[in-house]
Amino acid sequence: MRFLQFAMATLAVATATQAYSTYDKKILSDSPVLYLCMDPASSSTVDGNSTEKDLSGSGTEALYNCDCGTMMSAHLPNGDKAVNFTGTQYLEVASSPNYSIPTTGGLTLEAWIAPSTLQFADDESTGYVHWLSKGTTQAPEWVLRIYSYNNTENRPNRISAYAFNQTGGFGSGSYFQDAVTVNQWIHVVGSYNQTASTKYPRGYVKIYKNGILRGTTGLDQYNTVPWSGTDPLRVGTRDFRSFFEGAIGKVAVYPRELDASTIMGHYEAMTSNGTAYMYSY
């Protein structure tokens, strides 16, 4: 109830200065600790880079690094705007304990992505790019990544959610691996829960595609113990060794695992009025 009261109070204040879509209202009603619409039209420009305010009410401000003024835009399925990343740009948000799994023992990451290529020009390691992540030194806390179509692990355009130990190494993760259509929107949700059970003694990581649960993997896969660091959250890259090409919109972080019905509700809020902009152009 406290989460809902806070979200509605935030929405009441924010709507005095900015119009919100049905989707935005739905997200804010579920009390994210970070919500970035990723709308270039709502950003401001400072020293050649655009800034964007977190709509969750935290007072956080995100910075686009592009030296290009206003970022290029794309259309989401409901007609809202999103940001088009061309392969050298990224968005950075200062670290907060609210973005770390151990703070509450649960975390959900949500965004819409529309890759503009199947083979990323600037991928890393075995052939993947990080498009949403936290952690740049030693090891990431968590990442959402997508593989290029051609990669050394034979994972064509696999989309994954991982959590890592502070010492690095392999991460425990879940994924889906479907054919990707260039410029077509995909709703991706990665969620983490450290609650121990007989089946998942360290908890688990889940991944959803377009509102549907596609994978659940125990954090004991690689004896992963999620950790909390001070590195920033980034969209479009993690540590500048790879960059995403395509559109990203509606990035949200929640301090708990969202249930399946809530996630499906978010997907339906974006698509229920038709999909005139199912493709990002």
From TrEMBL:
The organism named in the record is: Saitoella complicata (strain BCRC 22490 / CBS 7301 / JCM 7358 / NBRC 10748 / NRRL Y-17804)
Sorted alphabetically, the keyword list is: Disulfide bond, Signal
Chaperone in keyword set: no
Q: Which SUPFAM superfamilies match?
A: Concanavalin A-like lectins/glucanases (SSF49899)
Record keyword Disulfide bond present: yes
Residue ranges constituting the LamG-like jellyroll fold domain according to the UniProt record: 105-261
- InterPro entries in alphabetical order: ConA-like_dom_sf (IPR013320), LamG-like (IPR006558)
Q: What is the lineage of its organism?
A: Eukaryota, Fungi, Dikarya, Ascomycota, Taphrinomycotina
Extent of the signal sequence = 1-19
Listed name of the protein: LamG-like jellyroll fold domain-containing protein
State the SMART domains in the record. Answer: LamGL
